[in-house]
Amino acid sequence: MKRPARSAGGGAAARPGKSAPAPARRVPQGAGEVRIIGGQWKRTRLAVADRPGLRPTPDRVRETLFNWLGQDLTGWRCLDAFAGTGALGFEAASRGAVQVQLVEGDAALAAQLETVRQRLKADTVRVQRGDGVAALRQCAPGSLHLVLIDPPFDGALFQPALQAAAPALAADGFIYLEAPQAWTDEALQPLGLAVHRHLKAGAVHAHLLRRAAPVSAAVSN
Length: 221
Fold this sequence. Notes:
By secondary structure, the protein is an alpha/beta fold. Helix content is 24%, strand content 26%. The protein is built from 6 helices and 9 strands, in the order ββαβαβαβαβαβαββ. It has helices at residues 59-68, 87-94, 107-120, 132-137, 158-168, 185-188, and strands at residues 32-35, 45-48, 77-80, 99-104, 125-129, 144-149, 169-179, 193-201, 204-211. A 7-stranded mixed sheet has the order 5-4-3-6-7-9-8. The chain is globular.
């Protein structure tokens, strides 16, 4: 292949009557990868697609979450309402959860989740393309041991998701909530929830929520 003649300034010599070719358009690349931290699929890599609002839970936060939960999730039923990369849901399945529902509204991300599910032969995992809040509303009361709520930070899905998750939560179950600000017991009290654990890591506030203890009726004198 011939190389173009060079000008004195070091650039390619311009051809009379023709403009310089437009630079090639860059093909969007993936944003990296995360790894499953523990369980049967430990160290398995999950691709992070370059999609708007996609923000995988940091490794440190996921590690802390599953330390809070006690590592072994054998027999648990879980729903990841905004699955994204699937890092949280696949982590739960890797640690023994008997049923994990991954709900994702983005068609490309949902297809990627299904590809990972098949690659891992994860029979306890079900991928559903759809609305996470609607999926929570369809759950039977008290049916879930763990609900994972990590929606895009620039949306308004936190309150609706918590409202839908609270009735579906088992008496001894947990809700993991990842948000850009801390949620207090006062804000959660109308939903019948309370903060069990809280961690701030950079811009992320990670919460582990439980059902609020029932308020004892005042004894009348």
